Amino acid sequence: MTAEIYSLTLPGKMLRRGFWLYVWVAETPQGEMLYVGRTGDNSSPHATAPYTRMGQHLGFVKNQNALRRHLSDRGLKAEDCASFDLVTFGPLYDEVEKREGLSRADLMKLHMPTRDIVGALEKALAEELKAAGYDVLNTVKSKHQPDLEGWSAARQAFSQRFPKLRERYD
């Protein structure tokens, strides 16, 4: 192995906690593959920053490294990919604020409606990217319908990086 120097530029705003949508673009030996996700998960009342999820996705903690696992399911190692690009949109909503006297269960009740709104947008984004011809690694599940205004804003934002998404609506 030959040592080389690499650089990663991170916009400071990607450190802001809240509800975000994101798409990983992995340049793999088999071509470009996408992974669609969101911050604001199902298991806690917190909504982390995209930067935090970035490391988790490529790490080795089994319940956090979905991108690495999906690549592995295709017979790929993350380390064999040429590059990873994290495309984010947000924050769409602020994280639920911790307040004195609120239990974890209380915080979850406040967190869940926003989580469901963003989850519906995540599902719509994944499905539309697939329909536009992109190779999306994951299938997003949500029983909620995306609100039209939110979906329009998300579609327009992600169309800047994924032009075939825009072409579906032209």
Please give a quick description of this structure.
This protein has 170 residues and is an alpha+beta fold.
* Biggest sheet character: 3 strands, antiparallel
Summarize the amount of helix as a percent range: 25-40%
Briefly note the structural class of the backbone: alpha+beta
Q: In sequence order, what are the helices and strands, one letter per element?
A: EEHHEHHH
Strand count: 3
Name the overall outline.
Answer: globular
Low-confidence stretches: none
Cα separation of the termini: 48 Å
Helix tally equals 5
Radius of gyration: 17 Å
Count of domains: 1
- Note the quaternary state here: single chain
Q: Give the strand order, joined by hyphens, for the main sheet.
A: 2-1-3
Mean pLDDT over the residues: 92
Secondary structure layout plus pairing:
Elements: E1 19-28, E2 31-38, H1 50-58, H2 66-73, E3 83-93, H3 104-131, H4 148-159, H5 163-167
Antiparallel strand pairs: 1-2, 1-3
